[in-house]
Amino acid sequence: MVEIGHFALVLAFALALVQAVLPFLGAVTANERLMAVAGPVTVTGFALTALSFAALTHAYVVSDFSVANVWENSHSLKPMIYKVSGVWGNHEGSMLLWVLILTFFGALVAAFGRNLPATLRANVLSVQGLIGAAFFLFILVTSNPFARLVPAPIEGRDLNPVLQDVGLAIHPPLLYLGYVGFSVCFSFAVAALIDGRIDAAWARWVRPWTLAAWVFLTGGIAMGSYWAYYELGWGGFWFWDPVENASFMPWLAGTALLHSAIVMEKRSALKIWTLLLAILTFSLSLLGTFLVRSGVLTSVHAFATDPSRGVFILAILTFFIGGSLALFALRSAALTPGGVFHPISREGALVLNNLFLTTATATVFVGTLYPLFIEAFSGDKISVGAPFFDMTFGALMVPLLVMVPFGPLLAWKRADLYAATQRLFVAFGGALLVVLAVLAVVDGASVAAALGIGLAVWLVLGALTDLALRAGIGSVGPGVALRRLAGLPRSTYGTALAHLGLGLTVLGIVGVTSFQGERIVAMRQGDTAEIAGYSLRFEGMRTVKGPNFTEDQGIFALGTTAGRDLGEIVSAKRIYPARQMPTTEAGIRTFGVSQLYVSLGDVTSDGGIVVRIWWKPMVTLIWFGALVMMAGGGVSLLDRRLRVGAPAARKRRDKVAVAGAVS
Questions:
Q1: Over 70: is that where the pLDDT of 649 sits?
Q2: Is 477 within the bounds of a domain?
């Protein structure tokens, strides 16, 4: 089975070369037969990659320690879910997942892009094949997941303990679906530059792929944030870690691309800018791949790999980023810039959105890579921490968030800003009332915290205002309003949900950073600590043996300061004997949208234990808001106008109607 997987990977590489070369030659020479090769070759390449991935998964499931990758990252006593997730919990396996998703997206383009012009489809699949060939070669030359060990060890070294978690089983696949999904947008951009033509139809074809990649990347970042929050025992949700930033930058650029493509589709404007964004978004995804695997960063998220792999990925990075930007420089002057519009318009609002998002991306880029450049050229080691990012990124995001509700209410081409402001009067009034209420009611609330909560409410009410105005709520009867709501395009609901989810995430971030409480106490059995109206009584420690770990659990009786019993919270520290690595398992109890968080520290000299206790108000809204944003993207994808293949389906229906009328 292992050799079959290896051979399938070699064949997939060969087919990727065919996919890269023959359709491109067909497009250049207008040879329809060569262009027609693209579809079957792409689908077959995906099938072979899936077979290779299945073979590696089988090796993990049956604990085949004759495979070096399985021996290094698995254990026979490990729970089955972590045997499976261990496939991508390492460098070699995760790269195989990377190319599996790449070929999967290529197969989707081949299957659902039949309505594309033949030349464009051939060029898109050719570029996808070229990307695939580069990464297949990288795996086969430097990162073979099927390398054998002779003789085979009896037992494995086990997976890194911090990766043995459900969150880390979900986080990488979602993240890669986002990273690699943007490769389709990149391929469309390069294909358009090769062909020398770009129009509103191109934006219509690109938008679903951009939206799908954005949804998955949003989920991947949110899942990674939540995993770090509950698994690492530090109580935070974002650290501005370089590898966190590496996933955040393509998300910011992808958000800008999503909005820019709307302008291009609706008004045939921002053509050149949209092409550049499509190139830059995937380029940032490639940069993230380089940072994680090159060894230049020390991070809990990074794979510890040798620098030679980093050099290979750097070469891939240089080829695709440099080549695409060079092609852009050569061909962009020949492209027509597109339509014009008034600054006060929906197009103008989306351009402003792009300006802030790309500037924020550049800020994160500089803060992330500046220490690496300093170390490379001078040998000095410096760090750029949260204060820099909070000041620069926050300063850019606040005005952008203030403007978000205006966008959907502005007309295309030319709009009346005063009229849009009037429509948002109720939303502004509601946000202002919330600000005043927070200042009046919440003890210790600063003006900045109150304004931050007001901003979040402004986003939520602004999104609801858009739906209410479209339905005519307040100007027509309830029955008519409900019918109008039911008849609204799904993309309208998707936009409203995405903006509403953004507001919920902002509310969670402001709430937890402004109002959280923290206590660090040394507790012995019978001691009690109080925080935010809750009391924790330390009942003692107990040892529990898991399948491949031993766990020391701290038991805390939870109640209110008024004497109400709320059960118990269990916080623990685990040790995995195979790797002799400890992990922290935080004890968390959720109350509405807030959480009580308990983490164990070191044992004290008098037999007690250091306990860190946090009260995290509104913290779950951070991730719930991300889920709502994902739902908004999913609803938008269900809109027929964004469904891949819809134009062809409509054309066929029109032909049937004409034929019926003639007969």
A1: no
A2: yes
Could you tell me if 418 and 270 lie in one domain?
A: yes
Residues 207 and 354 in one domain: yes
CA–CA separation, 566 vs 558, rounded Å? Answer: 5
Considering only the C-alpha atoms of the chain, give the largest distance between any 2 of them, rounded to a whole number of Å: 95
Q: Does 2 fall in a domain? A: no
The pLDDT score that the predictor gives to residue 302 is: 54
Question: Which residue, 277, 123, 124, 271, is CA-closest to 199?
Answer: 271
For the cut 50, the answer to whether the pLDDT of residue 363 exceeds it is yes
257-263 long-range contacts (CB < 8 A, ≥24 apart) are 257/185, 257/210, 257/281, 258/207, 258/210, 258/211, 258/214, 259/350, 259/353, 259/354, 259/357, 260/350, 260/354, 261/203, 261/206, 261/207, 261/210, 262/203, 262/207, 262/350, 263/346, 263/347, 263/350, 263/351
By residue range, what is the domain housing residue 215?
Answer: 201-298+340-423
487: in domain: yes
Listed residues 384, 408, 423: the one ending a domain: 423
Which range, of 95-104, 124-133, 202-211, 355-364, averages the lowest pLDDT? 202-211
Mapped onto helix, strand or coil, the DSSP state of residue 397 is: helix
Query: Do residues 449 and 495 both lie within one domain?
Result: yes
Alpha carbon distances (Å) from 68 to 60, 93, 97, 323, 387: 11, 11, 17, 36, 43
Claim to verify: residue 413 and residue 449 sit in the same structural domain: no
Backbone angles phi, psi at 321, to 5 degrees: -70, -50
Does one domain contain both 523 and 609?
yes
Displacement of CA 384 from its chain's centroid (Å): 23
Distance of CA 408 to the CA centre of its chain: 24
Of 415, 430, 435, nearest in space to 462 by CA: 430
**CB neighbours of 154 closer than 8 A, spacing ≥ 6?**
65
Residue 663: count of CB within 10 angstroms of its CB: 5
- Same domain for 561 and 487, yes or no, is no
Nearest alpha-carbon partner for 190 in 125, 258, 250, 132: 125
Closest CA to 154 of 66, 60, 58: 66
> Which residues have CB under 8 Å from 621's CB, separation 6+?
504, 505, 507, 508, 511, 593
Angle at 39 between CA 181 and CA 43, to 5 degrees: 65
Does residue 558 sit in the same domain as residue 573? yes
pLDDT digits (tens, 9 = 90+) for 54-83: 999 999 999 999 999 999 999 999 999 999
Distance CA 612, CA 518 (A): 7
- Asked if residue 161 has a cis previous peptide bond (ω within 30° of 0), the answer is no
Question: Hey, is 544 helix, strand or coil?
Answer: strand
The b/e string for 432-458 (b: 16+ C-beta within 10 A; e otherwise) is: eebbeebbeeeeebeeebbbbbbbbbb
Amino acid, single-letter form, for residue 239? F
Domains identified in the chain, total number:
3
Task: Tell me what pLDDT residue 662 has.
Answer: 40
> Of 396, 423, 450, at which residue does a domain stop?
423
Does the predicted TM-score (pTM) go above 0.70?
Answer: yes
Helices (H), 472-585: 478-487, 490-515
Token look-up 């399938």 returns 8
User: Could you tell me if residue 331 is inside a domain?
Assistant: no
Spatial distance between the Cα atoms of 317 and 310, rounded to a whole number of angstroms: 10
In this structure, are 574 and 491 located in the same domain?
no
Task: Give the pLDDT band (50/70/90) at residue 138.
Answer: very high
Q: Quick: pLDDT tens for 553-580.
A: 999 999 999 999 999 999 999 999 988 8
| Residue 605 CB burial class (10 angstroms; 0-12, 13-18, ≥19) | exposed
Residues 478 and 617 sit within 8 Å (Cβ to Cβ): no
